Amino acid sequence: MASTKKVALVTGASTGIGKAVAVGLVGAGFTVIGTSRNAAKAQPVPGVRFVDLDVASDSSVEKVIADVIEAHGRIDVLVNNAGIGSSGAAEESSAEQAQQIFDVNVFGVIRLTNAVLPIMRAQKNGRIVNLSSILGVVPQPYMAVYAATKHAVEGYSESLDHELREFGVRVTLVQPAWTNTSFEANSVRPDRPLPVYAERRRVFEEFMNGAVKDGDDAATVAKAIVAAATDEKPKVRYSGSSRSASLSAMRRFVPVRMFDRQLRKLNKLPA
Predict the structure, then answer these.
(1) Longest dimension (CA), the chain
(2) At what angle are helices 58-72 and 107-123 packed, to 10 degrees?
(3) Fewest C-beta in 10 Å: which of 27, 34, 101, 234?
(4) Which residues are identified as catalytic?
(5) Which residues contact 185 (CB under 8 A, 6 or more apart)?
(6) pLDDT tier at 3 (50, 70, 90 boundaries)?
(7) What angle do CA 13, 211, 55 make, to 5 degrees?
(8) Which helix (H) or strand (E) holds 174?
(9) Is 239 part of any domain?
(10) Average of pLDDT values for 196-208?
(11) Is residue 142 a part of any domain in this protein?
(12) What SS3 state is found at 77?
């Protein structure tokens, strides 16, 4: 039986930005299903039902979508928030490790999107919100693989949005900057670290620790995501915060050489 309330599915909803998004969507009047790799360990959130989901598994995705439809009869909003970070020099990650990160950050988005699209097209209505990052537009040394996944999500989402508008479905992007969550602490470290990069990697990790500590609050980013999910006339991209908006503007308007110099200075790299 179809639910009388709109239904939102939020991946990676047990902590950080995803948890704040789930809370925000409950406040906006949605029935919210939050996913986690281990839903039994997720702290209860009023109004949110947690289910197990591995976004890297076709069968797991198919089961969750089928269960949501059986229980509620509809999916109005999908927030593709689940993802993993990575750090280290690009050369220090094997192709296999890079594939594993892409399998979550990019192909996880594609799996969930493909699973909900037949439902949304049949409804002639739906909203997909994909979590990008400021690193989807700005380079970051020692996070090349992660940045590559976010560039992929950017291109996929914007292209897909054009394909789906005629069916009443919109795809939007939200670009957080550094956010004060445990995301970075849980990032994947390189599987083949090289001594030649050890000192630069250490300096980068110090920079990241400071950036995350002073980063935006998850609730600030969640506010932008809820707007992306509910605005009557959605934008293609939403900044996760004023900091994210400033960095994106700098990337677009600051001369390339000047931006390059500032980026290297910020990361304490040789001029």
Answers:
(1) 63
(2) 30
(3) 27
(4) 14, 132, 146, 150
(5) none
(6) low
(7) 25
(8) strand 169-175
(9) yes
(10) 93
(11) yes
(12) strand
Q: Is residue 151 part of a domain?
A: yes
Provide the 3-class DSSP secondary structure of residue 81. coil
**Which pLDDT tens digit goes with each residue over 89-139?**
999 999 999 999 999 999 999 999 999 999 999 999 999 999 999 999 999
Which residues constitute the domain of residue 120?
7-266
* Burial of 57: CB neighbours in 10 Å, binned 0-12, 13-18, 19+: middle
Is residue 1 scored above 60 in pLDDT?
Answer: no
CA 146 to chain centre: 11
CATH number of the domain to which 208 belongs: 3.40.50.720
Taking CA atoms, 262 is separated from 92, 127, 214, 247, 257, in Å, by 25, 37, 19, 12, 9
Is 1 inside any structural domain?
no
Q: Is the pTM of this model over 0.85?
A: yes
Q: Judge whether 81 and 53 are in contact, CB under 8 Å.
A: no
CA distances (Å), origin 186, targets 6, 15, 34, 145, 219: 33, 12, 20, 15, 20
Cβ neighbours around 52 below 10 Å, total: 14
Q: What does the pLDDT look like over 26-56, one tens digit per residue?
A: 999 999 999 999 999 999 999 999 999 999 9
Residue 39 and residue 86 in contact, taking contact as beta carbons nearer than 8 Å: no
